[in-house]
Write a structure and sequence with these properties.
The chain is of the alpha+beta class. The chain has 2 helices and 12 strands, in the order H-E-E-E-E-H-E-E-E-E-E-E-E-E. Strands 3, 4, 5, 9, 10 and 12 form a 6-stranded antiparallel sheet that branches. It has a 3-stranded antiparallel sheet with strand order 1-2-6, with no helix packed on it. Strands 7-8-11 form a 3-stranded antiparallel sheet, with no helix packed on it.
Length: 288
């Protein structure tokens, strides 16, 4: 007789009473012993990676420090390199080239000569100056027309003043001739007397002449010329005494620009006239 097992009764449906805040149980995963093994392997790999990073960092640090030092260090110009060695003359060698000669400075134009200082007038209260107007050589006579200016720089009036003038020609004996004139002028009558108050100026017009046969001519490059010299003498009363003044002037044409030398009177141009004249004080050498 067979026995057939009876089927188990069906389980009744049970509604879940789980709270929605409780998560469902996790699904079945790897065995529990595997987690510690994986954790240890991860720590080992992390340690190896850290050691490699530190080692490589240490290898790069010197280079980086050197780069930073190069960046921070100031740039210093290198010293100039020496030139090629000097080649000396000898066997197989050429003579050294001569040093370069600096160019000569540009030539400066010559500075104009300083004009000569005016000659100091003789000491005393009266001072004379002449202004030549005309000079002529004709009819056997040499003549010079001029204006004589006399200034009284003293504190007292100069009374009964008389002027004596003459005409000479420049020559080797001119100083002796001027001294002889001044020696004789004391007794010469001279001009009409006049007075000059302190600080005043008196002007006389005069003409001095010389016979043509006494004209001292100097020849320069075959051309005759005449250089007039006009000595001047004054005498006047100062209280109870008589005072005198000795002076002399050289006459010629107006100096050229940049010069202070008078031009001579060329005898061959006498018929054409001598143009503008000028005068400058002359001091004989024996007077000083």
């Amino acid at each position: 007789m067979s026995i057939t097992p009876a089927a188990p009764p069906a389980a009744p449906a049970v509604e879940s009473t789980l709270s929605p805040d409780i998560a469902a149980a996790p699904a079945a995963g790897p065995p529990a012993w595997l987690w510690p093994v994986l954790g240890g392997a991860g720590l080992l790999l992390a340690g190896l990676a850290g050691g490699w990073w530190i080692a490589s960092r240490r290898r790069r640090d010197p280079d980086e420090e050197q780069d930073q030092a190069l960046v921070a260090a100031p740039v210093v110009a290198s010293p100039p390199t020496p030139g090629p060695p000097v080649r000396t003359s000898g066997a197989g060698g050429a003579a050294p080239a001569p040093p370069a000669v600096p160019p000569a400075p540009a030539a400066q134009p010559p500075s104009p000569a300083a004009p000569a200082a005016p000659v100091t007038p003789p000491p005393g209260p009266l001072v004379t100056e002449i202004r030549p107007l005309r000079a002529a050589i004709r009819d056997g006579l040499v003549s010079v027309e001029l204006e004589l200016y006399i200034q009284n720089r003293g504190r007292e009036s100069a009374d009964n003043v008389r002027a004596v003038l003459a005409l000479l020609g420049a020559n080797a004996d001119q100083d002796a001739q001027i001294a002889a004139f001044h020696g004789a002028a004391r007794m010469a009558p001279g001009s009409e007397p006049f007075s000059i108050a302190s600080g005043g100026i008196h002007m006389l017009k005069a003409q001095v002449s010389l016979p043509g046969d006494q004209m001292r001519v100097v020849t320069v490059q075959g051309k005759p010329m005449f250089v007039p010299i006009v000595p001047v003498a004054l005498k006047w009363y100062a209280g109870l005494s008589i005072r005198t003044l000795r002076d002399a002037f050289m006459v010629g044409t107006v100096p050229a620009p940049g010069s202070d030398r008078l031009g001579p009177l060329w005898v061959e141009r006498a018929g054409e006239g001598f143009g503008r004249l000028a005068a400058k004080r002359y001091v004989p050498k024996d007077v000083g």
